[in-house]
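Hi all, long-time lurker, first post. I run a small reading group and we've been trying to get comfortable going from sequence to structure in the token notation. Rather than ask abstract questions, I figured I'd post a concrete chain and ask someone more experienced to write out its structure so we can walk through it together at our next meeting. Sequence below, copied exactly:
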Amino acid sequence: MSRDMWARFEAYYDVIYAPEVRTAAKALGCKGGWMAYFALRAAPLGAASPDVVTAAFFNFHPEMVARALPDAWTVATPDRYLDSRLEVVDAALHRMLGTDVRDLTEAASLATTAAQLAPTGGRVLGAANQALLTPSEPHLALWQACSTLRESRGDGHVAALVAVDLSPCEALVLFTADKGLDPAFMRQMRGWSEEEWRDAEASLTDRGLISDVLTPAGRGLREEIERMTDAAAARPWRALGSDGTARLRELLTPIALRISDQNEGMRTNPMGFDADQELQPQPAGHVDGG
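-- Answer (accepted) --
Happy to help. Here is the structure in token form:
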């Protein structure tokens, strides 16, 4: 269930990448979209250093982060970036959902409960988002809850990558091979050089995980990482209960589909997130670790 729910709260969270964010970045005075990305996502941590953000985000090249931070904190304060996040989400959701944004009270309540039940130990981004005040408007409260759940799951995913001894670039190379993504696109989106990418490929080849393509051992490791991630993200849904989780799933599914159909910012993305595929019903008997 944890992966099934992830697909739904990820699609809702991703409105932060809608075109409205470009207008917000310009208004803030950010020097390019990546400065806005790092500052908006890292703002719950306060004026965090590039080293801290690199560690928390995991698969970005340190130099890519350092080109945005700490300069972004001289452009605007973390609190201003937090306000801007909600302004972007508010504008994007009103454009995508129209007056239906008023019908999200029940979904917001259930998601907020789940987010408050998410574990925080060892989960820096999840904890920082959980500590933020819940917005009064239901559509924004729902987004903030989805942000907490998303970052908490991401923290658990990073823990899984560390547990199987993958460096940030190695994890990205393995993921790229598994998803059939374009290596050049992934390098560009995460800041790694061709030489660093080749070095990571060589390391994975030595471990028997890739050989031009993903090997059976590599596929098995990727599946194990996802199982570990799902299991680590299951607690909020166990605590919410099967009825509450099923109801939230029912409420989020049509909303997530509507948003994903309109969110051009996610047409091509480095997460390999395909909403149409991920939001399909799970086959009977499917078990995802939670």
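A couple of things your group might point at:
The mean pLDDT is 93.
Residues 138-163 form the longest helix (26 residues).
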